[in-house]
Structures are given as structure tokens and as C-alpha cells.
Amino acid sequence: MARVRNWQIGREMSYWYPESRPKKQFAAVFDINKCIACQTCTLACKTTWTSGKGQEYMLWNNVESKPYGFYPLAWDVRLLEALGRQTWEGRTYAGRTIFEAAPAGERALGWRPDDLDYASPNVGEDDCAGMIENGADLSVPHAAWFYYLARICNHCTYPACLASCPRGSIYKRPEDGIVLVDQSRCRGYRECVKACPYKKVFYNPMTGTSEKCIACFPKIETGEQPQCFVSCIGKIRMAGWISAPEAAREENPIDYLVHMRRIALPLFPQLGLESNVYYIPPVHVPLPFLEQMFGPGAGAAVETYRAAASDSDLAGLLCLFGSSPRVMPRWKRSGSFVLGLDEDGREIVRVPLREPVHVRAAFDAARGVARTNVP
Amino acid sequence: MRKILKYGAAVALPGLLLFSCGERDAAPTSEVVAARVSHVTEDPTDAAWKNVPAFRADLILQDLVEPRLLVPSTASVEVRAMTDGSWIAFRLAWSDSTADDLPGSARFSDACAVQFPAATGPDLPAPQMGEADRAVEIAYWRASWQASVNGRPDEIRSLYPNAHPDHYPFEATSLAPGSEVAREAELRYAPARALENPMEGPRERAVEDLVADGPGTLRSAAEKRATGSGVRTEIGWAVVIARPAPAGFADRGRGTIAFAVWDGARDETGSRKMRTGWVSLVLRETP
């Protein structure tokens, strides 16, 4: 085990390999508050990558309802239970990561789902209410709340899948930090399936190898955002590049949201993977739950988000989400517009902070027809 | 607990009892004895094996390299060997109460392997997959591959009988079944097959030739030579792995070999296995 720096837990930690950060790191911000669980992202991914034999229940992108939705079943609570109660001291994690809690003979603390754990995505997970006239259908010992959690591979800085593979069949691309399974080398041992805490590596029984989200790297290589990003009708997602905290740049939208404003947080940072999909936490969920899932910055992130309406820069940047199929590595606000820029500062897209409102009369006198409610 | 059966002594009782008894204690040979025959058989049920001495290879945990196996499973494997001078065949028989040959997310296949030093000489490579500059050659048999060779269809229903996929894009009515376009479309969703790394699926051989020069370095051998087959027995598996005899074995009459067994029911795969260290292999001319 090597000692590596993990800024998400505010300290060094043990990892199977020495620290080796890529030249650029693929990253994303998902605004949970805007997700409606339409599953368009899920289907976009499925159609593009996992429509083959042996991939029937494989969802590189999935959206589940929290707190009672899981894909695969109980993916997070099983690991949290195995890890046991851990604590933070401020922004420093005082507990053990999955690498530090690895049992004898293992490279990480993990578990391997059974076939049936993948077999019922979304089924029953939001059945907290029956027909509205019948009132609540499910009694739980807390106030009723839920939110949708869209998940892809986190393309972690310290991937557990990569660390656990005894063959080195998983690699992190130095040019963009995307984590891939080498399909010519994998022998289907499934150590990665067991070790990935997010359960985002899947075994394909027809090919006998493990497969995972590839961040649509053929698109990323041409400056395009992945399929699940561009298909998102709620415009909750933004893909880009994240810097290390000490190198954060305000003009980088991911840096701004993650490092400057700290409004977007990693998923289960305490597990120690330095994951690279960041979530703007839901504003209506009890703080202890958010802190468990997103770390100690959850409360401040919610407050910042609530105040975004009066913060032109932050509100402006959030308006850029879903505004272009292209990756926008830079951005700036110019008056009442926010601009998505390429690496050279050229404009990719220009979005108003507030869409202009047009009020039209219900009757079009010029044509003598009533206007219907269509664009 | 599984009952580990001990076979009778093949040398003393050629042709008797070997495939039906098992309760009889017998003096095991202290090394693997390869009997000289006119031709080797790949059939584990061939009566010729009854005339070949048996060696009981005690298995130990692979507990040196992560991920390790820490709970012992298969205790031993009974090994018989024959050679015609150019080819050598091994019949590995071991106790395993469950036949695990279906791939699945949390289902692992039973398997076994034989390993040789790639080069002859007194300076043996480490028995744990060899080491840098001292490679080992491995012939690996897997139960799921045997099922495929035996005719199990390459269909999801072979693995999940109640599966009912509604649609695969490469089976769209606009694509002629079996056409080049359809095959190409199917491979787009099966990258391992497209890269000719079919760890499951249609196979002509249940045995794979591999080389390694240290843990984690296992890779396909340049030549596909090994062959063999496996069958279920009353107590477990009997598998024959045949391959060209190690260089010079017929002349020197001596060699070295190691064995490994994986119990799929215990999630054994890759480095999680029961194995031996190096075992002596000797040629015995039949009178």
C-alpha cells in the first residue's frame, strides 16, 4: 500500500498504487434538485452501449430513488454497514476508507452482488404513497421525503476497481482520467465488481468479462459531452474537467462549483476513492442523511444553493447546464448572459440568466384563430 | 464437509477398482508418474487410465498474493499421467459436490490447471505463476467452457432459462439474420468478443494455453496446443488436459509440474484457488 493524498477526506490515505494524477481529469456535476427520474439518460446509455446479450440488466447509468431505491439492491447500505460507524472531524475524515478497512487477503472492503440484486431496478422504490385519496401507503419512522439519484461511474482518482484487479486489466487514462476495463485483457474474475463501492462495474456472463461506463470517451475525445449528459431533459448535468484544489481556476465551471463555491459534493467521500461525479445535494432532505452521502459540506452546499437566485454568477453558471452538447471547459458571465467557452476562450454558447417572457393574447386577431398552448 | 476420497494404487492393481472404489487407502506415488503409452487419450472415461498409476496431490491455499484464498476448500487432486513421447496427458480427478458451469454475476465456474516451467533446468521458477524471466506454461480447463463445447447454446436462456429479452438491436427485422451487418452490430455490444477475448461463449476447446511470468501476468500463449475434456463423476470432476510434452521430457525422463483447482461454489477464481507447489514428474516405460 502507498500513501496518497485525497483532498475529499482532507488527509493522506492508503491506496494500492502510488498517487498518479492524470493530465486532465474528467468530472461532472449533477444537480439533484432538477432530476425528475425520467430515465432518458438511462435509456440513452443503454441504447448506445449495453443493448447486447448478457447486458440485459446492465445499467452503466441508472437513476434510483433515495432513500429506498438501489441499483443493485442495497449497494450503498450494505457497504456502509460493513464499514461500520465512522466519523469526520470537521472536513477531515477520521474513519477508515474501504482501502484501510480491507480484510485480510483483500485489496479493499467490498461485496459482490448476486444476479437477483440487479434484477429489479426501480421496482417499488417510490411506492411511498398509493392513490392520493388513500393517503400514505408506507409508514416509515421519519418524515416522508425522497429524491432521485442519477449515477454513472465516478471515474475515481483512486478507483477501487483498478486497485482490486490482480491482472492490471483496468486502467486510468493519463490524458483524461477516464477509467476503463481492457476488454482484451479482462478474465472476468470480478474482483472489480466486488471492490467498486458504487457497483458500477458489471459482469457480462455472455462475454465472461466485466464491463463499465466509459464516459463515452469517443465523444469526450472530440469535445462532446457523453450521451447521458446531452439527453438529459432536466438539464441537470455538466461534464468538464476538475483540477486539484490547489490548482483550481475560477473560469473552470467544475472547479468553480466544486472548489470555489463548494456547492457540488462527491458521493460517499468517506469511502476514499476521490470520486469525480459531484452532486448538488437536494435541499429538502434531512442533513444527517445528506452528510452521510455527501460528506460534511452538505449543509453549506444546501445553503449556497438556496441563495443562488440572488447570486448572478452561480445562478448563471447553473443556467449553462444542458445548454450545449459540447464540453465547456471555461465560462464567464457577461451582464445578464452567461457564456460557455472553449479552451481558447471562444464562445460555444450564450445563455440568458432569465429567459425573456412573452405574453401573447389568447386570440390571434390577425389570423382570426385562437392560440393553443404550443411553442 | 466434503468427503475426500482416496483411490487405490494403480500400479499395484492395474485395471481394478480405480474408477468405482474410493474408500480404499493406498500407498500413493510420491511423484507424478507418466506412463509410456502408444497414444494418449483425451477422454477421462477411457479405460486406459485404469492402467496408469495415481498420485495424490495435496492442495494448499493460494495465500501469498492478494486477492488471497484464506479458507481451504478442495483438499487434494488425484493425478494420472500418460505420454506417447511427444504428447502428455493428465487426468485430474477431485471431489466437488456441485457442478458449477454456469456463468453469472456471482456464479463462478469450476476449473483446474496444470503448470510447467517454460524452460527446462534445475533453477525452477516460483510455482506461483512463475517470475520475471522465468516463465511458466499453463493449460487451464474450465467447466463452463466444457459445457459450451458439449453444445450448450450461446443464448442468454442457457444461463437464465426464464429470461425474456424483448429486443436486441442486431436482431431487428431490417437486418437479415446471420448477415455480416447483423454480426457486426452484435459485436458492437460485445467488445471482448470483438477483441477475440471470449472468456465465455462458443468454444471449440475447453482448455486454454497460457503463459505467465509472475502473478498478474497471465496471458494467452502464442500457440493453441492444449486440449482435453472433463466429465462429472460420482464425486466430482474428472478432467483430462493434454498438451505437447515439455521439451526434453522424453529424453531426460524427468520434469516438474504443478496443479491448481478452483471450486466455483466457493467463489474461487483467478488467484483465489487451491494449488500445489512444484511436483516431480517422471517417465515410466511400460514393460
What does this structure look like?
The complex is a heterodimer of chains A (375) and B (287). With 375 residues, chain A is α+β, with helices and mostly antiparallel strands. Chain A has a single domain, classed as Alpha-Beta Plaits. Chain A has helices at 40-49, 75-83, 160-164, 191-195, 217-220, 227-230, 253-260, 287-294, 298-306, 312-320, and strands at 2-6, 11-15, 26-31, 62-66, 88-89, 92-93, 147-151, 170-172, 179-181, 201-204, 209-212, 237-241, 265-266, 277-280, 330-334, 337-341, 347-352, 363-364, 369-370. Chain A has a four-stranded mixed β-sheet. In chain A, strands 15-16-17 form a three-stranded antiparallel β-sheet, covered by helices on one side. A two-stranded antiparallel ribbon of chain A has the order 1-2. By secondary structure, chain B is mainly beta. Chain B folds into two domains: 32-154 and 206-284, Sandwich (Immunoglobulin-like), CATH 2.60.40; 156-200, no CATH class. Chain B is built from five helices and 14 strands. Chain B has helices at 143-149, 156-159, 180-188, 191-194, 249-252; strands at residues 32-36, 54-58, 60-61, 76-83, 87-95, 111-117, 136-142, 207-212, 219-220, 227-232, 236-244, 254-262, 274-275, 279-284. In chain B, strands 1, 2, 3, 4, 5, 6, 7, 8, 9, 10, 11, 12, 13 and 14 form a 14-stranded mixed β-sheet that branches. In chain B, β4 and β5 form a beta hairpin. Chain B is globular. Chains A and B meet through β10 of A and α4 of B.
